[in-house]
Design a protein that fits this description.
Oligomer: single chain
Number of helices: 26
Number of strands: 12
Helix content: 40-55%
Strand order of the largest sheet: 5-6-4-3-7-10-9-11
Radius of gyration: 28 Å
Strand content: 5-15%
Shape: globular
């Protein structure tokens, strides 16, 4: 009885909650004053040019105010959760804990190296959990024999790796990170028995896989059973048109590790593809894994991982079960979200890859309402949450004969003919036609950001989620270290996010606030309108500079009491953001780079994502799913570690970044000299500050355009076009100054 009373988790409100609410009230009052002053400026405009300029700057302020207001929902009730896995082990025997299905998706062996994907799978197969209760399903949406070959090699290696990790209590169980001694203290400094031999085995396996990837084909020296697995790769087999391939590489009933213990299940899945059927990108691949796993293992708990995000905590399943096995919380708990942590980020996080607000700060505020959004990886789910609303009977395709939450139901042997036949059937390209898949069950279709959309609709259906950030990272991940990769990734997110608020009946501000809660709807709307940051940021990147060059003041002069309002609005917003960042473990230098990259995104990927969405709505372009490149050149890595921006290639987004940087520099130099000579410094102080602030933030761009000579410098074509844009901007402003003012 005493053991049953032990708490499995706890929750506490963050101390800054009341400060956040007080600041929101004061800041909102200041915004009303701002718009009153903007209205006065519009009414007093002496010319058409000044009227349109004040109207444009008022539009920018309105969008900024809307997005700031939505962000306050993420600060309204921040909470922090704690888990007590030692109490879980006291209350439940290991044999009584529920089975776990793990989903890992990959799609291109050249952008997502198969060895990286295999390392991710090996890290979760070696968790401190009953091995025969773990099933790992790998979706290869590229249908590559190279990926299957890598997992055949990994399956053999796992028979030595898993007992080695458990016997020596290794913390980080990604073999690549472990043997390199990356960040977890378990590397070469503490060498257990058999370490050298196991490392040699790993390096041999890695070499075989990398040679196969380099030559584009599997080796010729495969045995009969292995060769049989590749017979489906015929001459007509392509990435976009091929039959289903399901290969059970390991199974508890037939495989044992080097110590004689049962092995986890490892299943390779490449769903059938046909050009005649829409495959629904990653969401479609995940739904196939849902169905295949329901046939083969039917575990009540699922773990969703990106192919480059590996386990860093052998006890992570026990920590997750502290929430799923807690009756007051688990009744309607759809998923538990862990933060994304990136161990290889350089000292000052040049590209803001940590996404501190997205992955660490905002989820605390989400959790004070109905819980965080699904971040796409590092997420534990109840299988039941994909099978319909919490109070309705679950869909039978997802919860097949499940006798209890703890055992997952009775299944046929994994490799039996009946099981394999059923698994192939549910992976067919036409299986979902005329069904509820993607609409009311499974991962949801309708947005390129299937994670955001799926979590949002689950909460609108009555489910909730929870966010747990343990003292030590539970999962570690890779990240794009090329600026263009980062911007393209964000651009794709922008298109997917805009698909949600402008979809029929699904807007977070209407459907979300009505079906979930007002705070939850505002939180999701804050993300959904991410690309709209481009509107005010583009206006502030061009209009104050233009007005400075023509001598038109858009803000109060330095001696006007109204200037204190504008100063407070700037410092209040920036200051609170900096405080949030530092309180969550960040540094000032990283925060500064984070705000710089936010400005850069505003004039590049946010802007292009917005245009992509508008073109898509007009039927001019078709949405696509572009993978982030996870395989980079050594020189790129070297420059990243030095904190240098990586340009190096032609891109329209690099042009907008460079052009706005040059325009700010021209405005500051030419306009600054002019106002000093004319004695208008006091009147134009705010615009001088805005141009100067943009110039300071643009230093890496100027450096790449003029100073650097390495492979990451700005392409000459972009530099010339940006310079011409600056000249054109100046000539237009001169024409306006002489004819319209």
């Amino acid at each position: 009885m005493e053991k049953q009373a032990l708490p499995l988790n706890a929750i506490q409100t963050e101390p800054q909650m009341w400060f956040n609410r007080f600041h929101a009230a004061v800041y909102t009052s200041a915004l009303f004053a701002l718009f009153y002053h903007r209205l006065l400026s519009l009414l007093r405009s002496p010319t058409f040019l000044s009227f349109t300029s004040f109207l444009a700057i008022a539009l920018a302020d309105m969008v900024l105010s809307l997005l700031w207001l939505l962000c306050q929902a993420c600060r309204w009730t921040p909470v922090r959760r704690h888990a007590f896995p030692e109490n879980l082990r006291a209350r439940f025997a290991d044999a009584d804990l529920p089975p776990l299905d793990v989903f890992i998706c990959t799609a291109d062996p050249y952008k997502e190296p198969p060895m990286n994907v295999a390392n991710t799978a090996l890290s979760v197969m070696a968790l401190d959990y009953q091995a025969d209760k773990i099933s790992v399903y790998v979706s290869d949406d590229g249908g590559s024999k190279l990926t299957l070959f890598a997992f055949m090699e990994a399956a053999r290696f796992a028979k030595q790796w898993i007992p080695f990790c458990k016997e020596n209590k290794i913390k980080g169980r990604n073999p690549q990170a472990y043997f390199a001694g990356d960040g977890n203290g378990d590397g070469p400094t503490t060498v257990p028995k058999g370490w050298r031999e196991l490392k040699a085995t790993y390096e041999e396996m890695k070499e075989r896989v990398e040679i196969a990837v380099e030559r584009g084909d599997v080796p010729d020296d495969l045995d009969e059973e292995e060769s049989k697995a590749f017979r489906k790769w015929t001459a007509g087999f392509t990435k976009h048109d091929h039959p289903t391939v399901i290969q059970v590489l390991l199974a508890a009933e037939k495989d044992a590790d080097s110590m004689g213990n049962a092995m986890p299940k490892l299943v390779y899945v490449s769903r059938q593809k046909s050009r005649a059927a829409h495959h629904n990108f990653k969401a479609g691949a995940l739904n196939v894994l849902l169905r295949v796993s329901s046939v083969m293992s039917n575990a009540p708990i699922l773990l969703n991982l990106d192919c480059d995000m590996y386990s860093n905590d052998p006890m992570v399943v026990h920590r997750a079960l502290c929430f799923f096995l807690d009756p007051p919380l688990s009744t309607n708990l759809a998923f538990l979200q862990f933060p994304q942590v990136f161990p290889g980020i350089n000292k000052h996080d040049t590209y803001g890859n940590e996404y501190k607000r997205l992955f660490h700060i905002n989820p605390l505020g989400f959790d004070g309402s109905l819980g965080p959004n699904f971040l796409g990886t590092g997420t534990f789910f109840q299988r039941r949450a994909f099978a319909g609303k919490p109070l309705k009977p679950p869909h039978p395709e997802l919860v097949r004969g499940q006798s209890s939450f703890m055992n997952g139901g009775v299944r046929e042997p994994t490799c039996s003919e009946a099981t394999m036949e059923a698994a192939h059937a549910v992976a067919a390209s036409n299986y979902e036609q005329g069904s509820e898949w993607g609409s009311t069950i499974g991962y949801r279709y309708g947005s390129l950001v299937e994670d955001y959309y799926t979590g949002y609709l689950m909460q609108c259906e009555g489910w909730r989620s929870a966010f747990y950030s343990p003292p030590e990272p539970a999962f570690l991940a890779n990240f794009p270290i090329c600026l263009l990769d980062m911007l393209n990734q964000c651009r794709r997110w922008c298109v997917g996010l805009l698909e949600v608020p402008f979809s029929r009946w699904r807007s977070p501000l209407t459907y979300g606030t009505r079906k979930a809660s007002i705070i939850t709807g505002m939180c999701y709307a804050h993300y959904a309108f991410w690309p709209l940051w481009s509107i005010p940021l583009i206006i502030y990147a061009l209009l104050p500079q233009f007005a400075l060059l023509i001598g038109l003041p858009l803000f109060p002069k330095a001696s006007d009491p109204w200037i204190y309002l504008y100063t407070y609005l700037f410092l209040g917003s920036y200051g609170q953001d900096m405080i949030d960042y530092i309180m969550e473990g960040g540094t000032f230098a990283r925060w500064w780079n984070d705000q710089r990259i936010w400005l850069i995104r505003g004039v590049s990927c946010f802007l292009f994502g917005l245009f992509d969405y508008l073109l898509q709505r007009m039927g001019i372009s078709i949405p696509g799913f572009h993978l982030t490149n996870k395989d980079v050149d050594d020189q790129v890595v070297k420059r990243y570690k030095q904190g240098l921006f990586e340009f190096g290639v032609d891109s329209p987004m690099f042009f907008t970044i460079s052009a706005t940087a040059v325009i700010s520099l021209v405005a500051l130099v030419v306009g600054g000299v002019r106002v000093v000579m004319q004695g208008d410094v006091e009147e134009m102080m705010a615009q001088l500050f805005i141009s100067g602030f943009a110039v300071v933030n643009s230093w890496p761009v100027y450096e790449a355009m003029v100073v650097r000579r390495d492979g990451g410098r700005m392409p000459t074509k972009i530099t010339v076009l940006a310079a011409l844009s600056g000249c054109a901007f100046y000539m237009v402003s001169e024409f306006a100054r002489r004819n319209w003012t």
